[in-house]
Amino acid sequence: MPATVSARHADAAELLRGSLVTLRRRCGKPNCRCAHGDPHETPALSYSEAGRTKTVTLRAEDVPAVEAALSRYEQARAQLEAQALAGIRALAARRARRARP
Ligand SMILES: [Zn+2]
Fold first, then answer.
1. Residue 41 Cα, ligand 1 centroid: separation in angstroms?
2. Distances, alpha carbon 89 to alpha carbons 50, 54, 79, 86, in Å
3. Taking phi first (over 0 means left), then psi (-120 to 50 degrees means alpha), and beta for anything else, what does residue 28 get?
4. 31, 44, 45, 54: least CB-packed within 10 angstroms?
5. How many Å apart are CA 35 and CA 77, to the nearest integer?
6. Ligand 1 centre and the CA of 37: distance in Å?
7. What is the pLDDT along the chain (101 residues), one digit of tens a residue?
8. Helix (H) and strand (E) counts for the chain?
């Protein structure tokens, strides 16, 4: 699959961590509408990596797929968290049984 196609049609199992933000900027062209009106708006994914906040700018048509991938990540993270908590409870229960005289 060509890179442009795979980038546009993100894998249905893709996960993304971070949050959707809107970048606003004035391009600096004196005759542009943004000089006196609203600044240009670009959707972006903001995420942290190794303690630093980074952004990936998006096209408007990419936003729904990015939202879906963020949602999949949150669901997977919540599931993993629940499994880890169940593991802790099982460990604690085994310890409690063994501690009984
Ligand atoms: Zn402008």
1. 10
2. 31, 36, 15, 5
3. left
4. 31
5. 43
6. 9
7. 444 444 556 677 899 999 999 999 999 999 999 999 999 999 999 999 999 999 999 999 999 999 999 999 999 999 999 999 999 999 999 999 887 66
8. 2, 3
Residues in the chain, total: 101
- Give the Å distance between the CA of 56 and the centre of ligand 1: 20
Cα 63 to averaged position of ligand 1 atoms, centre (Å): 22
Whole-number Å distance, alpha carbon 61 to ligand 1 midpoint, is 21
Question: What are the boundaries of each domain within the chain?
Answer: 3-99
CA of 80 to the centre of ligand 1 (A): 44
